[in-house]
Amino acid sequence: MAHSTPAQIARQDRIEALIGLAAPLLDVVLAVGDRISRIVEPGDNEYYPIRPGGRVALPGEPGYDEDAGFLPPEPPEPPAPSA
User: Fold this and answer.
1) Which residue range(s) make up the domain with 19?
2) Rounded CA separation 56/70 (Å)
3) Contacts 24+ apart (CB under 8 A), 63-66
4) How many domains are there within the chain?
């Protein structure tokens, strides 16, 4: 990798300083947006986990059913009481 010239280093330092100054403002913007989205729509009905618990057929794969929706895995049955 080629060495940076003094002008490039100075420009990089200025850009990094601007990013450092803007970071808190951007954090506030993200936090306010998150709060507003939670107030406007508290429950996200279209949300599904990126990695579901089991194997899920994707569109175009055998076993995919558009009308089935995404159902959570059933909990395991409790063990039978011992006598």
Assistant:
1) 1-44
2) 9
3) none
4) 1
**Calpha distance 49→21 (Å, rounded):** 35
Q: For residue 25, what pLDDT band results from cuts at 50, 70 and 90?
A: very high
DSSP, res 61:
S
Phi-psi region of 55 (alpha: psi -120 to 50; beta: other; left: phi over 0): beta
Cα–Cα dist 21/28, whole Å: 13
In a domain, 16, yes or no: yes
**Are residues 5 and 12 in contact, defined by beta-carbon separation less than 8 angstroms?**
no
Q: Structure tokens of 57?
A: 């057929």
Q: Hey, what are 23's tokens?
A: 């970071």
The type of residue at 6 is P
pLDDT in tens, 48-82: 666 656 666 777 777 666 555 555 566 677 777 77
